[in-house]
Design a protein that fits this description.
heterotrimer, B: 352 residues, Rieske Iron-sulfur Protein, five-stranded antiparallel sheet, C: mainly alpha, Cytochrome Bc1 Complex, Chain C, two-stranded antiparallel sheet, 7% strand, cell membrane (chain A), Cytochrome_c_Oxidase_Subunit (chain A), electron transport (chain A), respiratory chain (chain A), transmembrane helix (chain A)
């Protein structure tokens, strides 16, 4: 007891007491409240989860099951974490169209970021998983762009192309372009491995590695990226270059040759 | 090539009617060559003012070229090498490259355009017919050459003194062999180099991203990791040669998903290690689809099933990816339990 | 020496300086007899006759810019750390070759421009040769006496392909390194000697430390040296044979109609050099090619999707991609058919270009010189074969870019591959049939035009109520042009029994030849061109038809 009384004046004491009180009240309420009203909690976190659950039941449950346990139409979401939700819904992939092709494409998101956060909080409450990264994690501060380039070429370029323009996978699946994808979403994709993309968890690709990769992508495929030589031609390499060379190189030269070899107009006979 | 068995009638008659002289349609041949049409004048030929206009146009083009060259020189001297500008439909590009290219292009193009315009409008455009002469020599020349050759050949005694001829042929045939021998220095014999990699029993699997040895618990289901043998460094003299064979791709499967018995035996708790080098022509294969467990090669689309011993299921590769047998060492790190049992990478004659 | 002294003094005193220089040179080089034959040499005007010049000029431009690049490029695979001005590469390990290419691109003033002109020049050079070769093929300009020049041109194209390949491999970037790796895989598939060739090419195992330096001497010395020689020989033969021309009034097999070298073609052809150079410079100013800084240095364990070669190697890439993975293991040896067959098909496809003129001349048995060009429609079988070859080529190109077709047209890469596997064979057959039909249709139309005149589109009503379209008779020039072509009759083997009733032995080659000749010139392979009698009969009849 002496220990406790000694810490009574600690600045955080009030907070701890408050939290304990809240937990006790909540616990009591939960114990006594009728079933089904269990979410009537005052804490903002639970409120978020509650809102998320509402959204979930309307927009997601038909495929992923009412408790996120999954169904034949959609995988289980237990343990995928907030990061996966933030990525899938934030890039508009989820909710997916009822009839989709080989894979779900990126589109305009249907939910606001606030709603996405609520959904993420709800899904995160179903089982532990990676949380949404902070700006500190994916921001450009302290990143090594060149190292990021090397990591990108080892881990990412095989599917997403040298500068993230995307590429083909088997049977109509594809690695999408990374142009215009928010750094946060790139980070989440590496963390969670959406659809057929493998994941690159922190245990094999450190946080710093991911930060470097994002910084490299921003340098070579960002809004301000310079293509010193001129038109990027899609960044696809020799195929688009060859097409351009044939049409605009040889094409122009043939047009010029037609002019060089053509007869000069004759004066009308008088 | 002899056509003696086939009558020559299948060759069309020589088209010789009315060449040279200007002919008109006659009763005999309505399709006869009417000959070159008479020359018609261009406006520049009859109107001196039009000719003057052409002259000024040519001079204008040459002047533009001069100005563009001056522009090139100014750009070269004035623009910083790292200056980036935004040009509307193109995007951000190097100011120097853009300025130099355009000025050089204009300077050159205008010289050409001026010269062609000059030729087209001011030089004579009267068409001239030039006679052709048969390429082959006349029979007299032909006979003379043959006779000269026979005389020369006879005087050399080449046909008569067979000993000289044969030894000369022998010497000439053998002497290039020296050159062939010298090419031997281009490279060492292959021996068994393509059969071995740096992997050996007890070598830890080092993560390419972090440079740290891997533990099985680091490798999550659905993740993709690349590894190299412990002790290898990018700074090594033969790093490129060694990584070209030793590069490793590591994924974790649910042990129940693994259909191939050997694959299961050679894995560790579902962690499997396959060569990253495609067995087709050697591209680093690594387009891993974590849901289908298929690996695709970006170069030629060979597809391998990682749950079934990396069997080829599509594309031009001829055999499965070699698997590396792995386990854990006393400290809990993943380690190789030996080298690959078969050569990695593309097939070759001695592979067997 | 023998000139009269007074004549000499007169020329010294009066002649302009240029004339005196020319006299001096003639006394030592004999330039006057050369100029006599060539100064007023006649060249016919046609845009397609300038395609060869596109190639020649882009080749010269490539040599000029290439020499500039050698001043800065280090053909070495020694490993260095990058410390130039391109930020996303700072501190990366790379070969000196890659490092110096970055240096040229970012730190040499105008270096990037010259690099881009060089590379765009190569793309246009090969494309120009390809189209030039097609022009020569479809107009029959390869016939006697020009078969040897066809071979020179063919060699220039093939050597150009390999010069291009060795050239874009020099920067040692990730894309080209992947290409070299693929080439090594192809070499390894060669039975018996493949492994040795690979080890000799790379100085040991791939990638080794030698290939950049070796490719460099091949790229800047060996191949361009041979090509320069071939190009000069090609040009000398063009001068010697005099240019071909299309049929037309006043144009015969015995003359060439056009403009003189001095002054018209001096200005036009000379000017064209500057036009080509100008277009390439503008291209290099506005469009980026081979951004090696975006690809990174080569490492054998790294790769990017969309790994394709430059366009002229694209068809070989297609064969390699669509081939099924056949492999035979016998007695401890591996026959890698899945890689070897594409390699062989690649070679056969090129060889087929080289030998075609000889096959056709064997079939026709025609030993005469041909200087009047065929219109493609008037040689339907040749035209159809050419289009079939092009279709094969195009299908292989689709296969070579199957992944980009898949991503850009939302298809499955597997379906694209299956499609190419089928249409690599079906496509040329369809193309052959369709082209031949079109050619025959055009021949029929020409025949109608000659016999009945041009359809004017004017409808006339006759007194008795009938409507007719007025046909305007063709001019003499048009009549001649449309009937100037020759038509072969199919070769026949002749009677198999001679006059005495003894059976004559007909060699199989002659039977084959007769068969082919029938396919080329038989009843179903060409429409008989109008004969003078037919024309006269129709025109002498009553008015319209």
């Amino acid at each position: 007891m002496k220990k406790l009384s000694a810490r009574r004046r600690h600045p955080l004491a009030a907070v701890v007491v408050l939290l304990l009180a809240l937990a006790a009240t909540g616990g009591l309420y939960a114990a006594f409240a009728p079933a089904g009203k269990a979410q009537a909690d005052e804490s903002s976190q639970s409120l978020t989860i509650k809102e998320g659950k509402k959204l979930y039941e309307v927009g997601c449950a038909s495929c992923h099951g009412t408790g996120g346990q999954g169904s034949s139409d959609g995988p289980s979401l237990v343990g995928v974490g907030a990061a996966a939700v933030d990525f899938q819904v934030g890039t508009g992939r989820m909710p997916a169209a009822t009839s989709q092709g080989a894979q779900v494409p990126r589109k305009k998101p249907t939910y606001t970021q606030a709603q996405i956060d609520q959904l993420a909080a709800y899904v995160a409450s179903l089982g532990a998983g990676p949380s949404v990264p902070t700006k500190q994690q994916y921001g450009p501060d302290g990143a090594d762009i060149a190292k990021g380039g090397e990591l990108f070429r080892t881990n990412c370029a095989q599917c997403h192309n040298f500068t993230g323009k995307g590429g083909a996978l088997t049977k109509g699946k594809f690695a999408p372009t990374l142009e215009g994808v928010a750094p946060k979403h790139i980070y989440e994709a590496m963390q969670t491995g959406p659809q057929n993309m493998p994941s690159f968890p922190d245990t094999t690709m450190s946080e710093k590695n991911k930060k470097d990769i994002i910084a490299y992508l921003n340098a070579v495929n960002g809004d301000k990226t310079e293509n010193p030589g001129g038109l990027e031609l899609g960044g696809l390499g020799p195929v688009s270059e060859g097409l351009f060379g044939w049409i605009f190189g040889l094409g122009t030269l043939i047009a010029v040759a037609v002019w060089v070899a053509a007869r000069t107009a004759k004066a009308k006979k008088s | 090539m002899s056509s003696q068995d086939i009558p020559e009638e299948n060759l069309p008659a020589e088209q010789d009617h009315a060449h040279g002289a200007v002919a008109t349609a006659d009763e005999e041949n309505p399709f006869a060559d009417p000959g070159l049409p008479p020359h018609e004048h261009r406006i520049q030929d009859i109107d001196e003012r039009a000719a003057k206009r052409s002259e000024r146009a040519v001079a204008f083009l040459f002047t533009v070229s001069m100005l563009a060259t001056i522009g090139f020189i100014v750009s070269y001297l004035a623009i910083p090498n790292d200056k980036s500008i935004f040009v509307f439909p193109i995007g951000h590009l190097s100011a120097m490259n853009f300025a130099l290219g355009l000025t050089l292009g204009v300077a050159l193009f205008c010289i050409g355009a001026g010269a062609v315009h000059w030729a087209r409008t001011l030089m004579s455009d009267v068409e001239i017919a030039d006679d052709r002469h048969p390429i082959e020599a006349s029979p007299e020349v032909r006979a003379k050459v043959h006779a000269d050759f026979r005389q020369g050949a006879a005087e050399s005694g080449f046909g008569r003194r067979k000993l000289i001829r044969n030894t000369m042929f022998g010497a000439m045939a053998l002497v290039p062999l020296s050159g062939v021998m010298l090419l031997g220095g281009l490279g060492p014999a292959p021996k068994t180099k393509l059969r071995h990699t740096m992997w050996a029993k007890g070598k830890r699997l080092v993560n390419m991203n972090t440079g740290q040895p891997l533990r099985p618990e680091d490798v999550a289901v659905g993740s993709l990791t690349f590894a190299m043998p412990d002790g290898m460094s990018e700074h090594d003299e033969d790093f490129q040669n060694e990584i070209a064979k030793a590069a490793l791709m590591i994924v974790r499967l649910q042990p129940d998903d693994i259909k191939d018995k050997r694959e299961l035996d050679w894995s560790h708790q579902g962690v499997v290690a396959y060569s990253k080098i495609c067995t087709h022509v050697g591209c680093p294969i690594s387009l891993y689809e974590q849901q289908t467990h298929h690996v695709l090669c970006p170069c030629h689309q060979s597809t391998f099933d990682l749950t079934d011993g990396a069997r080829v299921i599509f594309g031009p590769a001829g055999h499965a990816l070699p698997q590396l047998r792995i386990g854990v060492d006393s400290e809990g790190y993943l380690q190789a339990l030996g080298d690959f049992e078969e050569p990695v990478g593309p097939a070759f004659w001695e592979r067997g | 020496m023998s000139t009269a002294p007074n004549e000499q003094s007169r020329s010294r005193g009066k002649a302009p300086a240029g004339e005196r220089v020319a006299d001096w040179a003639d006394g030592r080089l004999g330039i006057y007899s050369l100029a006599k034959a060539n100064m007023r040499k006649i060249f016919p005007d046609h845009w397609s006759f300038m395609l060869g010049e596109v190639c020649m000029y882009s080749f010269i431009i490539i040599i000029l810019t290439g020499v500039y690049l050698t001043l800065f490029f280090h053909p070495s695979m020694n490993e260095v750390e990058y410390h130039g001005s391109y930020v996303p590469m700072q501190g990366q390990l790379m070969s000196e070759a890659f490092n110096s290419t970055l240096h040229i691109s970012f730190d040499v003033r105008g270096g990037l421009l010259i690099r881009q002109i060089h590379h765009w020049g190569a793309v246009v050079f090969l494309a120009g040769m390809f189209v030039h070769m097609m022009r020569v093929f479809f107009t029959g300009a390869f016939r006697k006496p020009r078969e040897v020049n066809w071979l020179f041109g063919f060699l220039l194209f093939v050597l150009g392909m390999f010069t291009g390949f060795t050239g874009y491999s020099l920067p040692d970037d990730l894309l080209s390194g992947t290409g070299v790796r693929i080439a090594e895989g192809l070499v390894l598939s060669v039975p018996i000697v493949g492994t040795y060739i690979s080890f000799f090419l790379f100085g040991g195992e791939f990638p080794g430390h030698d290939f950049v330096a070796r490719f460099y001497s091949i790229h800047i010395l060996l191949l361009p040296g041979i090509m320069l020689g071939l190009m000069v020989a090609h040009l000398i033969l063009v001068f010697y044979h005099k240019h071909t021309q299309f049929a037309g009034p006043g144009k015969t097999e015995k003359n060439v109609v056009g403009m003189p070298l001095l002054p018209v073609y001096m200005a036009k052809a000379g000017g064209f050099f500057f036009l080509v150079f100008g277009v390439l410079a503008v291209l290099a100013a506005v469009a980026q090619i081979n951004p090696i800084w975006a690809m990174g240095p080569y490492r054998p364990d790294q790769v990017s999707t969309g790994a394709q070669p430059d366009w002229y190697m694209g068809f070989s890439e297609g064969f390699v991609r669509v081939m099924p993975g056949w492999e035979i293991n016998v007695a401890g040896h591996t026959l890698v058919l899945g890689v070897l067959i594409p390699l062989i098909v690649f070679g056969l496809m090129l060889v087929s270009i080289a030998v075609y003129p000889f096959i056709e001349s064997w079939i026709t048995g025609d030993k005469r010189e041909h200087h009047i060009l065929d219109r493609p429609r008037n040689a339907p079988t040749r035209t159809a074969l050419g289009v079939a070859w092009l279709t094969f080529f195009a299908m292989a190109m689709v296969g070579g870019g199957n992944d980009l077709w898949a991503t850009h047209f939302h298809l499955s890469v597997n379906s694209v591959t299956y499609f190419v596997r089928i249409f690599l064979f079906a496509g040329p057959v369809i193309a052959y049939i369709v082209t031949k039909r079109i050619c025959l249709g055009l021949q029929r139309r020409d025949r109608e035009k000659v016999l009945h005149g041009r359809e004017t589109g004017i409808i006339k009503r006759l007194p008795h109520g009938e409507f007719i379209e007025v046909h305007e008779p063709l001019s003499q020039e048009q009549l001649h042009t449309l009937t100037a072509h020759e038509q072969y009759t199919p070769a026949e083997i002749g009677p198999t029994v001679d006059e005495n009733g003894v059976e004559r032995k007909v060699p199989a080659s002659q039977k084959l030849r007769a068969k082919l000749s029938n396919a080329y010139y038989g009843e179903h392979a060409q429409i008989p061109k109008p004969r003078a009698e037919e024309y006269k009969e129709i025109t002498s009849g009553h008015g319209h038809h």
